[in-house]
């Protein structure tokens, strides 16, 4: 006798009582087989219960695709409980990627015209959740009609469905413009809330709709004013505030309508000030409205006093007990710092106090904002607070904090000594977390400050004697001891009380560094060099001790250390008379040797483009020179005289020139400059191509795609795909990011390599996909055939 099928409650209870996963899987497979058999036998009486069980199995993660057609059958049923199960199944089992969902269009249309409001609500909910663009185009008229007339519950769902339609198919915006005007006059808060959402969605996609609804700003201001002044209403008030959800939606719509429009912004200034001053902040509801008010004030062209009021509201948020509110305030202040720097600076002490917050996310946000607040007027006080924070913060924050202090000190240091003291403090406390360039930056700073050499070497020597575990500190200290150790031996220092160091004590400290298991190979290399340089100031037994320490590393496993030790040992054995001159103080490397544009400067201070060293690439702004001039310039770069010496006359100039050109036989005519090409300019998104052809690979074109965003909001999920004809080969490297940040922030870049061996005219097809700040997904295909001739010939 076949086993009877289980009811839904019994199935749930049996699956929950399964002791092992294998037992559960066996039970599900057995019940799924029964359900599949019932579907195949077309049993209408048990179809709804079987589909309900299948939906539960689907929720557990097991396959349930074979129930899709049964959902359509139940939707077409005249019984409400079967129709409800059918719509639920469709919402769970169907999506746009499956062709089956297109069969829903006719059933949903019939149910939208059904006399029962319950059936209409089911159809509207399903259409809004899984409708495709084609379904929306077919059913937009019915949805618009239901939103105009009918029961309030049906109208609310129809308005929400209209929002989904506008978001999915922006072309249908014109269908709902008249509906939006009508909804603004509705007395029902729920329908009015949906109508404002619909208007905001339309204005975000359609410039004509934006201009149309800007005329309704006084009406929206009046609605918001009435809500602020309204008394308690049991139907709409939450924590004593009248319909906060509607207030938030109106503020968002006002922000969209007032953006970049001074007249509209002036119209809403009074009501924004009223909301900002009259909203109670004792409950989280009031804080939500205030935060939305701040965003609206900063998003429109509001008065300066109102903008300061908005910053002060965020400053009060920093004292709130709720850590989520504090986090939101810190993030908002950081975004507004560039536009309202002076107003944000007033809350610097409160921001620094947030560094002690127990929540790590709030602490990280406070650190980022504190570093951004540093300027020349507050650098001493702020960096002191940051150094104290560095001493106690978690390891995952030390790297960001140390790097930020370094950058602030380098940019705003009031004096060289303060700069050196600050960097030494950071190296002492968090040397293992600093950036890789901190060591060369500090050595350059000390080397360029002659009057502080004795002070720096004494401070570093004392720090090294106390702790040799911080590798960057040890490297800087050993470098200074090697360069300026004679000042320690002489005990001369004007900045602080001088301290004369015994040579043997100094050598013992360097020996500790060499023998420490904490020392990196690079650190040992610094210590070896310091020993050699100290040897030029010492005599007798100290020299023998240095020779013995150096010879130990002649058989070191590290190749770099071994080579250095062997060379130093050779200086002692064969070239002792040259040791003092070879180990002189290092000359100061001029950081200005590289210009901002990446060009190098020669000894006379003239700027030389780095491309001058690349055959076939002409430096920017230069003209083609004759061969003799090119050879002369190359000789200048190599440090040779540009003119023949009178002591060594050149008898055959052409032969000499030819010999040099033989060495540079790969020198080719300069490549023509390639201009930037704008390939996409839509939705405030600008995509530009800058092209370059390597001189040694003429068939290769390097394209750098630069994606910038002129809108204040971020564009997310950006992707760029490229296709070329079969005669070309294209390689698309990974982009620098998938989020194109708002106006004034760094763009996204992506490198495209195009190989064109046959030198054919270049054609390219781009597919761009991204999501606008409003959440709308956009996908565009662009055809480019206007590449300059120099890009492919």
Q: In brief, what are we looking at here?
A:
With 793 residues, this protein is of the alpha+beta class. It is built from 34 helices and 12 strands.
Mean pLDDT metric: 83
- Radius of gyration, whole Å: 37 Å
Strands, total number: 12
Proportion of beta-strand residues:
5-15%
The SS-based structural class is alpha+beta
Helix content: 55-70%
Question: Which descriptor suits the 3D outline?
Answer: elongated
Give the N-to-C terminal Cα separation.
82 Å
Q: Total number of helical segments?
A: 34
In this structure, how is the largest beta sheet organized?
5 strands, antiparallel
List the strand order in the largest sheet: 5-6-7-10-9
Low-pLDDT ranges = 592-671
Subcellular location: Cytoplasmic vesicle membrane; Endomembrane system; Golgi apparatus
Membrane topology: Peripheral membrane protein
Keywords: Cytoplasmic vesicle, Golgi apparatus, Membrane, Protein transport, Transport
Organism: Gekko japonicus
Description:
This protein has 793 residues and is α+β, with helices and mostly antiparallel strands. The protein is 55% helix and 9% strand. The strands form four sheets. Strands 5-6-7-10-9 form a five-stranded antiparallel sheet, with no helix packed on it. A hairpin with a 2-residue loop joins β5 (677-682) and β6 (685-692). It is elongated, with a radius of gyration of 37 Å. It starts with 7 loop residues before the first helix and ends in a 9-residue tail after the last strand.
């Amino acid at each position: 006798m076949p086993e009877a099928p289980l009811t839904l409650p019994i199935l749930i209870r049996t699956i929950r009582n399964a002791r092992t996963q294998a037992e559960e899987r066996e039970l599900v497979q057995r019940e799924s087989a029964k359900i599949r058999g019932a579907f195949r036998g077309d049993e209408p009486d048990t179809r709804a219960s079987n589909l309900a069980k299948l939906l539960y199995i689907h929720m557990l993660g097991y396959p349930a695709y074979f129930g899709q057609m049964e959902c359509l059958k139940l939707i077409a049923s005249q019984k409400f409980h079967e129709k409800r199960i059918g719509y639920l199944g469709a919402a769970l089992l169907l999506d746009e990627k499956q062709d089956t969902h297109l069969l829903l269009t006719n059933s949903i249309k019939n149910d939208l015209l059904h006399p029962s409001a319950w059936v209409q609500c089911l159809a509207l909910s399903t259409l809004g959740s899984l409708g495709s663009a084609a379904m929306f185009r077919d059913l937009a008229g019915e949805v618009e009609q239901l939103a105009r007339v009918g029961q309030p519950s049906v109208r609310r769902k129809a308005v929400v469905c209209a929002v989904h339609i506008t978001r999915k198919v922006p072309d249908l915006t014109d269908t709902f413009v008249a509906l939006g005007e009508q909804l603004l006059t509705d007395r029902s808060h729920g329908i009015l809330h949906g109508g404002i959402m619909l208007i905001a969605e339309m204005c975000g996609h359609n410039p004509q709709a934006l201009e149309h609804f800007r005329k309704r700003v006084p009406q929206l201001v009046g609605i918001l004013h009435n809500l602020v002044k309204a008394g308690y209403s049991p139907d709409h008030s939450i924590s004593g505030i009248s319909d906060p959800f509607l207030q938030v939606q109106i503020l968002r719509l006002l922000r969209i309508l007032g953006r970049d429009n001074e007249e509209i912004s002036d119209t809403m200034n009074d009501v924004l000030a009223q909301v900002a001053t009259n909203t109670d902040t004792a409950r989280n509801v009031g804080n939500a409205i205030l935060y939305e008010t701040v965003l609206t004030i900063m998003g429109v062209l509001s008065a300066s006093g109102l903008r300061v009021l908005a910053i002060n509201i965020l400053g009060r948020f920093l004292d709130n007990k709720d850590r989520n509110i504090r986090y939101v305030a810190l993030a908002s202040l950081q975004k507004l710092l560039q536009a309202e720097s002076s107003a944000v600076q007033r809350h610097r002490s409160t921001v620094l106090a947030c560094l002690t917050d127990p929540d790590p996310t709030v602490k990280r946000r406070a650190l980022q904002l504190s570093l951004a607040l540093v300027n020349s007027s507050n650098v001493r006080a702020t960096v002191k607070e940051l150094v104290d924070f560095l001493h106690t913060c978690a390891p995952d924050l030390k790297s960001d904090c140390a790097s930020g202090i370094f950058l602030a000190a380098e940019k705003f240091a009031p004096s060289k000594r303060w700069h050196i003291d600050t960097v030494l403090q950071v190296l002492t406390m968090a040397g293992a977390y600093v950036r890789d360039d901190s060591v060369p930056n500090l050595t350059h700073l000390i080397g360029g400050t002659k009057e502080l050499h004795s002070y720096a070497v004494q401070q570093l020597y004392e720090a090294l004697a106390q702790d040799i575990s911080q590798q960057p500190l040890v490297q800087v200290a050993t470098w200074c001891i090697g360069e300026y150790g004679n000042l320690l031996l002489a005990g001369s220092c004007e900045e602080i009380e001088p301290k004369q160091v015994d040579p043997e004590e100094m050598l013992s400290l360097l020996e500790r560094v060499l023998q420490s298991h904490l020392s990196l190979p690079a650190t040992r290399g610094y210590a070896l060099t310091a020993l050699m340089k100290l040897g030029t100031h010492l005599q007798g037994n100290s020299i023998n001790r240095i020779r013995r320490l150096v010879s130990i590393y002649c058989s070191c496993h590290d190749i770099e250390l071994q080579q250095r030790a062997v060379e130093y040992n050779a200086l002692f054995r064969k070239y002792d008379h040259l040791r003092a001159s070879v180990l002189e103080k290092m000359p100061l490397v001029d950081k200005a040797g590289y210009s901002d544009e990446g060009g190098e400067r020669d000894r006379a201070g003239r700027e030389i483009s780095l491309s001058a060293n690349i055959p076939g690439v002409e430096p920017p702004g230069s003209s083609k020179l004759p061969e003799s001039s090119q050879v002369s310039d190359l000789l200048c770069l190599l440090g040779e005289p540009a003119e023949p010496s009178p002591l060594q006359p050149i008898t055959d100039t052409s032969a000499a020139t030819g010999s040099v050109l033989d060495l540079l036989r790969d020198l080719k005519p300069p490549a023509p400059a390639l201009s930037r090409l704008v390939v996409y300019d839509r939705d405030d998104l600008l995509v530009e191509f800058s092209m370059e052809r390597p001189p040694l690979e003429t068939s290769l074109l390097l394209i750098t795609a630069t994606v910038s965003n002129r809108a204040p909001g971020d564009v997310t999920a950006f992707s760029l795909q490229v296709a070329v004809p079969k005669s070309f080969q294209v390689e698309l490297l990974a982009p620098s990011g998938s989020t194109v940040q708002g106006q004034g922030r760094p763009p996204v870049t992506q490198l495209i390599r195009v190989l064109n061996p046959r030198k054919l005219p270049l054609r390219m097809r781009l597919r761009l996909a991204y999501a606008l700040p409003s959440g709308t997904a956009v996908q565009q295909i662009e055809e480019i055939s206007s590449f300059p001739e120099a890009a492919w010939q």
